[in-house]
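Example 3.2
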Amino acid sequence: MAADDSAKLDWGPLADAVGPRVRLLRNALAARTVVVLAPFSLPSGSLSILSLIAANPGCSQTMLARQTAMNKSAMVGVLDELEKRGLARRSTAPEDRRRNALSLTGEGEKLLDEMQRVANAQEGPIRQALTPAEQAQLRALLERAYDAVAQDAL
C-alpha cells in the first residue's frame, strides 16, 4: 500500500514540543518574507529595524540589537546600509555623547510604509485562519515564550 504524502506524520517524542512547530512557522514566514521583500534590496531584518526605529525614535543600536536578537556587528552592518541608502540616520544622543540616537528619514518612513503593506499581505493566511483575539493571544504567548528562553540564553 502506497503512503499518502499529504498525510501528517506523528511527531512521536516531539508531540508536546513547542520548538519544532515554532521553527516550521518561522521557516515558512521567513521564506515568504524573503520573496516579497526582495524587490527592496535591503539586508535581512531591515523591516524589523525600520519599524522599531519608527516606533522608538532616538533608540540606540544596542537596544535594537537586543530587541531583534541580532549581534551588534550585524546590526551595525544593517544600519550602515540603511544610512547609506538615506533611510535612517544616526546622531549623537544628547544625554550620552557615546551613544547614537537613531531616526528614520522621510524616505525611510515612505519605504517602511510600502514594506509593511507587502509584509502584512504575505501574513494573510495567518490573519484569515485566526481571529484578531487569537492573533493577539499568539503574539503574547510567543513573546512570553521568547522572554522565558532569552533569560537563560546559552
